[in-house]
Design goal:
heterodimer, A: mainly beta, six-stranded mixed sheet, four-stranded antiparallel sheet, 0% helix, globular, B: mainly beta, seven-stranded mixed sheet
């Protein structure tokens, strides 16, 4: 069965960076894109960007351009989302999801807390 | 950027009743529209894609309709497990965008 398993919760200081991982199983990793979506506490869903594990192509929301880098490691079927210069506004649950159109399978989410 | 507007923000419904949720796009997204259900503390779950196709394992009481800029999610007879927040999402344009959500609560 398709599964996306994300790394554990993180607590970061303002100005720091965070790298969240998303390990895929149950399907051919290079056949589907990986999208990243975040959700601030009590808020809605916000699309951050997408990466193609096969081609390495990416597409980031303008809001995150220059501050987010999405990568994949096809040898371990793992996707990564790296965000720099964190502020308190980045406190959220970060999800990875399969596909770049509709998102059919989701990771369990990774809570990133930014606090001094 | 395509703005997705959902209405109402909150829908109070009795178990067994029908629920109708709306989603409007600021410009045409063709039929490239998905619906998700999210319960507290859980990841979103895909319900509908391509505006009207149920995802794998989704009960027939969930149905989607619409194209262009106006879309509807209907839950024909609400079960206790259906009380949740529902989001629409367009994938016709970059960036992908979500509506702000409709909370379906028990009346």
């Amino acid at each position: 069965q398709v599964q996306l398993v994300q790394s554990g919760a993180e607590v970061k200081m303002p100005g720091a960076s965070v790298k969240v991982s998303c390990k895929a199983s149950g399907y051919t990793f290079t056949s589907y894109g990986i999208s990243w979506v975040r959700q601030a506490p009590g808020q809605g869903l916000e699309w951050m960007g997408w990466i193609s594990p096969y081609f390495g192509d990416t597409n980031y929301a303008q809001k995150f351009q220059g501050r987010v880098t999405m990568t994949t490691d096809t040898s371990t079927s793992t996707a990564y989302m790296d965000m720099r210069s964190l502020t308190s506004d980045d406190t959220a649950v970060y999800y990875c999801a399969r596909r770049e159109w509709f998102m059919d399978y989701w990771g369990q989410g990774t809570l990133v807390t930014v606090s001094s | 950027e395509i703005v997705m507007t959902q209405s109402p923000a909150t829908l109070s419904v009795s178990p067994g009743d029908r629920a109708t949720l709306s989603c409007r796009a600021s410009q045409s997204v063709s039929s490239n529209l998905a619906w998700y259900q999210q319960k507290p503390g859980q990841a979103p779950r895909l319900l509908i894609y391509d505006a009207s196709t149920r995802a794998t394992g989704i009960p027939a009481r969930f149905s989607g309709s619409g194209s262009g800029t106006e879309f509807t999610l209907t839950i024909s007879s609400l079960q206790s497990e259906d009380f949740a927040v529902y989001y629409c999402q367009q994938y016709n344009h970059w960036p992908r965008t979500f509506g702000q959500g409709t909370k379906v609560e028990i009346k």
